Fold:
Amino acid sequence: ALGVVMAEVGYPFSYAKGNTINGLNKVARDTKVFHAGTASKDGHVVTSGGRVLCVCALADDLQQAQTKAYEGVKQINWGSEYYRTDIGFNAL
Structure:
């Protein structure tokens, strides 16, 4: 299993709220997106905290889980998202 946190630029200090999150419905069904700093506004999912989402994937090995998690991350955007690109590399 591997999870990648998607945060708002500026976290943990000053960051925006209320940005519409796009692409949640494009993430593969076998990849889970856990909401942390989100809210619902006018029928849309929007940012409401610094650590916004965690995209998690399970696979037979860490390399596959990492690939699947980052594929999910690439489907999601809100214009000021930030995520680390090195998650899992030390273990590999």
In short: The longest strand covers residues 2-8. Helices lie at 62-75. Residues 10 and 75 are 21 Å apart (CA to CA).
